[in-house]
Amino acid sequence: MNHLTTLGIPPNAWAVNEAIADITRPPLDTKIITLLTQTKTLRLDLAKSAILVIDMQNDFCHPDGWLAHIGVDVTPARSPISPLKSLLPVLRQIDVPVLWINWGNRADLVNISAGSRHVYNPTGTGVGLGDPLPTNGAKVLTAGSWAAAVVDELEQLPQDIRVDKYRMSGFWDTPLDSILRNLGRTTLFFAGVNVDQCVMATLQDANFLGYDCVLVEDCTATTSPEYCWLATLYNVKQCFGFVTDSQAIVEAIEDTVTSDQ
Questions:
Q1: Relative orientation angle of helices 246-260 and 81-93, to the nearest 10 degrees
Q2: What percent of the chain has pLDDT over 90?
Q3: Residue 261 above 90 pLDDT?
Q4: In Å, how far are 54, 91, 172, 191, 249 from 198, measured between CA atoms?
Q5: pTM
Q6: 107, 111, 116, 122 alpha-carbon torsion, rounded to 10°
């Protein structure tokens, strides 16, 4: 067979030349683990998995960010930082994609409705979407600004994937679904803040789109009241997927590696 050139990203890739288009799409090698969750033991394939890290950005997690500016204690929002620093390198080592889903609006806000803007500036006279923070001038939740950047404590690597979102759900009006389908990823781990808002909205949409959803409890947090946190955990387990923690994932991976040796 004459030389073939790969077009696309495996597993959704073709091999082509001037005469042939091989569209068989060879499968990825399986990486099956057995993972304990709060409701069931899962048998899942890490070769078909990805982790979404949602809104671990300065506006939500930094003491000089927008939430802190409006008087919210962001201490809870920082709690996922430590477990994520331990979990993400383990997942990267076995080629599980890390996707950073950050709220990063267009500077002109032309795709943001008045209703969405009202949530963040209910009086119309405060510091809302696109407005500069008094502390450093960074524009609130604007793509490319310090406000929308991932907190410094969490390392982003070149192979990681970044997706700007414009509403609470990371799927709405973004390329996230197309990216995951091209990568052949059907099982999604969820991390980030706020678990009852942006994480939950993204997880729900993922469920509606047919993805398998696993919330990583210690890698999520919220600045909302505790009942919001408890209701989120209940609803995920009842309706939308499974709940586990980072240590259970690491142990499942280590057990698989040990058994393969």
A1: 20
A2: 94
A3: no
A4: 7, 23, 11, 10, 23
A5: 0.95
A6: 50
Q: How confident is the model at residue 139, as a pLDDT?
A: 97
Q: How many helices (DSSP H) and strands (DSSP E) are in the chain?
A: 8, 11
Three-state DSSP class for residue 189: strand
Query: Residue 144 region, left (φ>0) first, then alpha (ψ -120 to 50), else beta?
Result: left
Looking at residue 31, what DSSP letter applies?
Answer: -
Separation of alpha carbons 152 and 64, rounded Å: 13
Contact 54, 44 (CB under 8 A): no
Q: Which of 9-18, 25-34, 49-58 has the highest mean pLDDT?
A: 49-58
Instruction: Give yes or no for a contact between 81 and 220, defined as CB atoms under 8 angstroms apart.
Output: no
The answer to whether the beta carbons of residues 223 and 66 sit under 8 Å apart is no
